[in-house]
Structure formats: C-alpha cells, structure tokens
Design goal:
disordered C terminus, Creatin/AminoP/Spt16_N, six-stranded mixed beta sheet, X-Pro_aminopeptidase_P, Creatine Amidinohydrolase, Chain A, domain 1, alpha/beta, 32% helix, Creatinase N-terminal domain-containing protein, two-stranded parallel ribbon
C-alpha cells in the first residue's frame, strides 16, 4: 500500500497473517519472485488489473519461470457474498454546456475524428472521468468526486454506447443521452465486445481491465486518458486580463477554448464558465 496508510494498516489488520509493505519501495513483482519458485502460477482477476499491468508482470515473472493465470471467478467475491455492500447507485445529472464549454455531440465527433486519424476503429472507455467528460454527465458513485461508474464504446462511425445501470438514469437525463448515444446495462459490455465485427484495430485507454483485451478479434493500443489527449490538440487562448468574480482585482488567465472536466464545486464551475466568457 502507499504511504497514506502505512501507519494505519498495522493497527487495523492482523500482522501475524498479513505483511504490510509500502509501495513503490516494495514492488509486487519483486515480492512474487522472492516468494515463488520456477513453475509456480499466480492467479489474478482480469477485471481488476489493467492490460499494461498484466503485460508488465507477465514479462517480469516469465523470466523467472512463473506464469500468470486469469481466474474465472474472484475467490474474495465468493467469500464476501452475504455482507457485501451494494454497488453505488447515485443518479446522474446533465452537465450544462454553460459549464462544460462544448456539447457532448461535438466531443463525440472530435473523438471519432481522432480515431480516424489514428487508424483506429473504436475506443473503449473505462475511466469514469473520461466518460463523464465525453457525455457531459456527473454522478455521485465516488465520494467527493462527481463521477458515475460506467463503461462506453465509441466507434469511429455511428452512435456510441454507454453502459450504465438504468437505475442511475432518470427520464430527463435519459432523453438527453438517447439523442447522442445508445444506453445499455454494464453486464452487456462483454457481449458487445464479443459481437463486435472483426476489424483491424481497437484503441483501449490505459486503465482498461485485462478482461476486455481477452475478447476475440480485439487488438489494443494503449492511449492517454481521453480528455487530456483530445485537448492537447486544441489551441490556447491568448493571455488576457480578467477580473475575478470573487476577489475583484484583475488577474492573468490562460485557458483552452473549453474546460475538459470540472470536478470542482458549483461555484468553481461557475468561475470556470465565467473565465471562458468573452471579455466584459
């Protein structure tokens, strides 16, 4: 675990059973190589580890004769069936263009243009911030972070598909989303990947789970998170003097033509929108 919990963990776990190690000083790959021997296998849940992470571990452990094996069912999930908390089901809300700077349709069109330029057929989005940015939505599934847990597939042509629990989408938001995307349940993602027609390449974002890469006919190209990658191509505004709505004195501000993803409070979002407005 990281340094934020290295003092707390020994007080809350049985150290006779668990050894508490701090990362990055202690690396899982090094611990496994010191603990296991040639011919051993390490099971892992492909839904909890990224493509890049498993590829790196496979290379590192393979040099020592240790192999990685995906497990069909997580054993912790089987033990935790009775008293496990229910998944978060906070409703999503539409994030107005007043604060987002661009409509979801415009963002989707630019993503599809980027896919065509990069010779990719589709992008699978698994990062909540990228998904909320793209579809101009906000949620409450994670404390203190207004995002919704979901998945999305954006093809280079045609309508994207947003995989989100229907209980999170009320009728008003559903009407807005259905004008730009198809909506499906998260459990339908694997089936959608299997049914996808054979194409030359697919583009997967860095946090994509390894289980998605195992779907047939999918070839993966890792990329940066979507908002950062798209906005990196956007020209910056010239520096202008602005008057802060909260403090009054003039300040210098530079900004892109639109805000990628505002995670701040409503007040912060209003300030960001004010900063993007024409000079008064």
């Amino acid at each position: 675990m990281d340094g934020r919990y290295i003092l707390q963990a020994p007080k809350q776990v049985d150290t006779d059973i668990f050894e508490v190690l701090q990362v990055p000083e202690a690396k899982p790959s090094e611990w496994l190589k010191e603990t296991l021997v040639k011919g051993n296998a390490v099971g892992y849940d492909p839904a909890l580890h990224t493509i890049k992470e498993i590829d790196r571990l496979t290379k590192s452990l393979g040099a020592e004769g240790i192999r990685l094996t995906p497990v069909p069912e997580n054993p912790i999930d089987k033990l935790w069936e009775k008293d496990r908390p229910r998944p978060p089901m906070a409703g999503i809300v539409h994030h107005s263009v007043e604060f987002s700077g661009r409509s979801a349709a415009e963002k989707i069109a630019q993503v599809q243009d980027t896919l065509k330029e990069d010779n990719q057929d589709a992008v699978l989005l698994t990062a909540p911030d990228s998904i909320c940015w793209l579809f101009n939505i906000r949620g409450g599934d994670i404390k203190h972070t207004p995002v919704a847990l979901a998945f999305a597939i954006v093809p280079k042509e045609g309508r994207p598909t947003l995989f989100i629990d229907p209980a999170k989408v009320d009728e008003n938001v559903r009407g807005t989303l259905q004008s730009i995307t198809d909506i499906a349940k998260p459990g339908e993602l694997d089936g959608a990947l299997k049914r996808s027609p054979s194409r030359r390449r697919r583009c997967g974002s860095i946090p994509t789970p390894r289980r998605c890469a195992s779907r047939r006919r999918w070839k993966w190209t890792a990329s940066n998170t979507l908002p950062a990658r798209i906005l990196a191509r956007c020209p910056r505004r010239p520096r202008r003097r602005r008057r802060s709505p909260a403090r009054g004195p003039r300040i210098f501000a530079t900004a892109r033509p639109w805000c990628a993803f505002s995670l701040g409070s409503t007040r912060s979002a209003k300030r960001a929108a004010w900063m993007r407005s024409p000079r008064r």
